[in-house]
Structures are given as C-alpha cells and as structure tokens.
Design brief:
single chain, alpha/beta, Collagenase (Catalytic Domain), 2 domains, six-stranded mixed β-sheet, 6 strands, 6% strand
Amino acid sequence: MRRAILITLALGLLAACGTQQTARQAIAPLALPPMNTFAPSPPRAPMLSNATLARDFMDLTFTLENGASMPVFSRFEGPITVQVVGAGPASLVPDLDRLLVRLRREAGIDISRVSATAEGQITVQPVSRAQIQRVAPSAACFVRPNVSSWAEYRARRNDPETFWNRLRERQKMAIFLPADVSPQEVRDCLHEEIAQALGPVNDLYRLPQSVFNDDNFHTVLTGYDMLVLRVTYDDALQTGMQRREVAARLPGILARLNPRGGQAASAGRTADNPDWQSAISLATNPGERRARRLGAAKRAVVLSNGFGATDTRLAYAHYVLGRLLLARNPDQALGSFLAAGRIYQNRPDTAIHEAHVAMQIAAFQLSAGRPEIALGLVDRNLDVVIQSEHAALLSLLLLIKAEALANLGRPVEADAVQTDALAWAQYGFGNTSDIQARVAEIRAISPRTRQDPRS
C-alpha cells in the first residue's frame, strides 16, 4: 500500500505572513508547455552488505506492515501477465510498459502486459481517489490478493482468502490506483504496488534506498528494490518454503547476485521501536488534528534519538516536525530541516532525502533575500532529483531557481527555467490549478514580489 502524501514546500511562510491568497489572485493564467517525461536511467546497485540485505529481505518478505507473519514464502511461478482494465490517464500504459521493461532487465522477472480482454494474473484497475479513500483513508493506492476487479474486491472485502496473512500461493492480484491524480502519482503507485504484488509485503522506515519505506522519498523502484525482487524470483527459492528454508538459502543467492556485498561491512542493527512507529504514523496522518500531529512529531524526535545520531529515522522525524511547524513557527521549522539535513548529508545513501531538505531550505533563503544561496542549493541537487525521477520535486526546485534568477536581474534565464519547471509540473502535479497555485506560492515568498505584487 502506498500512503497518500503531499510534497510540502516551505510555504508555511505564506500562512504566517498572509500573502498566499493575494499572490494567487495576482498570477495571470499560465501558458503551459508540453509535459516533460523522464528518459531511461541506468540501474544503480545498492550499497549494502549481503548480511544486511538478507536481514532486510526476511523482514520485507515474512512480516506484514501490521506486524502479522506470512505463513510461507510466496511468489508467482512461471511467466507473469499484467492487464489494465478501465479508463486511466494517458500516461498509465507507457509508464507501466517502461516499468515492465525494467523488471525484466534488472530483476530478471518474466513479466509482460496483455490486452484488457485477456486474463492477466495482475490486474491494474484505475478508480477514483474518492473510492480508494472510502475503503483505505490513508492510502494513495493498494493491492489485494485473489481478486481481479474492483467489484470483486468490494464483494469479497471481508473474505479471509483475500487477506495477505492467509496467502500461500500467488495466482492473481488486483491493484487499485486513482485515475484522477497526476501522472507521477499514478506511476508511483504502479511501481510500489506491482512490486508488492510480485514480492515484498512490508514497509520499513529503516530502509533509505527503497520505495518500501513509508517516508516516500523514493518514488520509483531503486537498484535495492530490483535486487530484492531478483532474489525473490531466484531459482533457488520456490513458493511454499518455510522461513528457515529461505533464510538458509539467502547467503548463497546473494553471493551470486551481489558479489560486491560480500566485501561490505554489515551495518549494525538498531531495534525497531513500536512507540516511534506509532508516533510517526500519527504525525504524518493528514486526517488528524494539527495539535495531535505536532505533539506526535516532537515525541518521534525524542524517541528516535535512541536509534543513533546518523539514523535516517531520526532525520525523518526532524523533517516531519519541520513540515508541521512551517505555518506557525517558520524559524523552528528551519532548525528541524537543518537537523535532518545534517544527517542526510553525512550518509552515502540519502541523496534524494537531502534534496527534499534542500528544497525547503532554498525556499527559506529565497524568502530571506538571499537568492544566490537559494540558487546554489537548487543547482547542487538537480541531478539526483532527475536520476530519482521525482518530477514534482524537480518542478518546485526549478520554480525556486527561476524566482532566484529573477531576483538577481537575470530575466531571460528565469523565463527559460520557469518553462522547464512548468513542463515537469504537468507530470508531477497534473492539474492546471495545482500548478498555478505552486507558482503563486513561490512568487509570494519572493522579495521582488513582496515589493511589487504585480511582478
């Protein structure tokens, strides 16, 4: 299940200074360029020891998000087919086909798409966001075993045979994703839910290199995720194996598939903390009152200090607290972002996490009248955001860059960068009014706009 999450810019400043509505009214309708999409990127191998990978694989494969255990190892056996039924956005099928190419090439899985009239083992069905939220309020999308349509899911929702903890053999899966969201959100759902239909059933906050992490920093399957899937479909494993049998075969499998991992030092493991997990879940739940979320985020920071000074869970707790502080305590929010950034900067596996923090800090620097610093922060992080295929984040960084250039008296460059930002925003945010709002929000924190609202 992919959790619903909004990418939040450091625009809580707007609520504090009361400029957001004025800025929205001042922006003329935008002329949007054609939508940008990402080119294929080369696979990137994970940076972990095989001992660490084996431990993660077992936790991803045999434990569900709610803590329940899977009875046996399960996967699809033989060639796998995927079908799309129902009306979806134009980007859905191209993004699905690109994902299936990656799964064949990087994970070695025999998987292909068939027509909607054929019978696929994995069914992808777009429905409305409202339909999804009525049955799973915190989910952006989800996958369910042993059903093949929305109607069948609704009819069998309480049937134990469709529960993950009863699953012994994977024969059919249905993925439900929203049809009325941005192309990026549809693609992100495809990546996580198809991967879960194929293999891992858990999300772990301790995994910085994976989409199987509810922090949602990664939006497409990583080299780590592809290796996990390659292990899942290795010939040495088969459906029905017990946990101990899988554990016994993992060292040999990983030695073959990830020989570099045999030379890497195994990372020490800090035990998971259920209290921290509860606190961070509450803090990131948009359906809860702000006061409760803020209190939970502060508690998560305190609890995560027990994980260690360089743990990504500590950084994430600071990041979540920063986002919740934005609207009313921007200076405190900046302190939280800086605390998160210090951890992410000192790790080799958290470049995309650092880019999210850099976007927040760049917005602060722009608002404070330091466009040169904002420009430098954006430029240092563009490459990793492109490599991570995060169009929404990329468009926001480029909008900040365009505004910084305009403040520096470089209007021709600013216009060119804004055109690029809008092309990425169409993929990342989709809706024209949402794009218009993002542009208005960033202009509202710009010193030149505050001096002349007509800018």
